[in-house]
Amino acid sequence: MESKRLQLLEEEDKQKKKIARMGFNASSLLQKNKLGFLNATSYCRLAHELRVSCMQRKKVQIQSSDPSALASDRFNLILADTNSDRLFTVNDVKVGGSKYGIISLRGLKTPSLKVHMHENLYFTNRKVNSVCWASLNHLDSHILLCLMGIAETPGCATLLPASLFVSSHPGERPGMLCSFRIPGAWSCAWSLNIQANNCFSTGLSRRVLVTNVVTGHRQSFGTSSDVLAQQFALMIKLWDLRTTKCIRQYEGHVNEYAYLPLHVHEEEGIVVAVGQDCYTRIWSFHDACLLRTIPSPHPTSKSDIPSVAFSSRLGGFRGAPGLLMAVQQDLYCFSYN
Q1: How many domains does the chain contain in total?
Q2: CATH number (domain holding residue 267)
Q3: I need a labelling partner for 319 at 20 to 30 A (CA). Which of 107, 149, 193, 240 fits?
Q4: How far are the Cα atoms of 48, 158, 196, 264, 268 from residue 282, in angstroms, in the given order?
Q5: With bands split at pLDDT 50, 70 and 90, how would you rate the model's confidence at 82?
């Protein structure tokens, strides 16, 4: 297993030009487009796939007011905001528990890839089950965390203002942290529907709980099964809810029992997931073709599964598409060539 990982890493470093699909390199793609064999949509999709297959790994330099913490605290989770100019991080600390931080991605430009970590004293001794950005005061003004219960302390959903780390709006005052007691919650999602303004949902066993953070009003919706249904069969499935049939299978994913995030990027037409084997796999969303398998830069370990974030605009509006990978204490950028 380790020898295979090292071999793949060596091949990644040596082979600059890769082919996502047989018969589709850069020259053949241009030729088929000129001859009219590809329409504009197919050409753009295949061009994106080719760029994904040619992304090169580069280490990102993280700057912080506490460099010693960067050398010891391990990344557990990263999540980019809507504009992809901030990255919320959950780091495991040596003394136990986790601490939170926000990385500004505005310095993520070649050739010097530098980012700045904004930290806060907020930490938790509980496992973070799920995280999402929340638009309460303005776009991505807060972070919503779903925390597992521990001992006699029940699980909860915590709304953390991003201004506690760094203010993105002039004159903005640091907001207040608020917490909602929700035992048994394992997932959370912020509502983007104006009819459910200021609301978030949490996934529970056989039901969904919708909470209004302003009024505290709650609604419970029963389901015939758990909201999250994972089939641990080395694949990811796309379902048509109208016909309740599987219409596509993304094969190769390795997950025996863990709750691992899945990233779907319709703009780029790709699906990204990290398996328990620590390999990051990228598929074509349209036909489930496996485009690329990226080995972890560090030895494979169940406690060091990489966390990734893909964006069409890394670093903000003028940024380029690419993939960020956090593993152990390091952050890597795979940018379009």
Answers
A1: 1
A2: 2.130.10.10
A3: 193
A4: 12, 32, 33, 10, 11
A5: very high
Comparing 279 with 269, the larger pLDDT belongs to 279
Tokens of 191: 């509502």
Q: Are the C-beta atoms of 55 and 334 separated by less than 8 Å? A: yes
The pLDDT-based confidence of 1 (bands split at 50, 70, 90) is confident
pLDDT digits 0-9 by tens, 297-334: 999 988 899 999 998 888 887 777 889 999 999 999 99
- pLDDT tens digit sequence for 208-260: 899 999 998 999 887 654 433 445 567 788 888 777 788 888 999 988 877 78
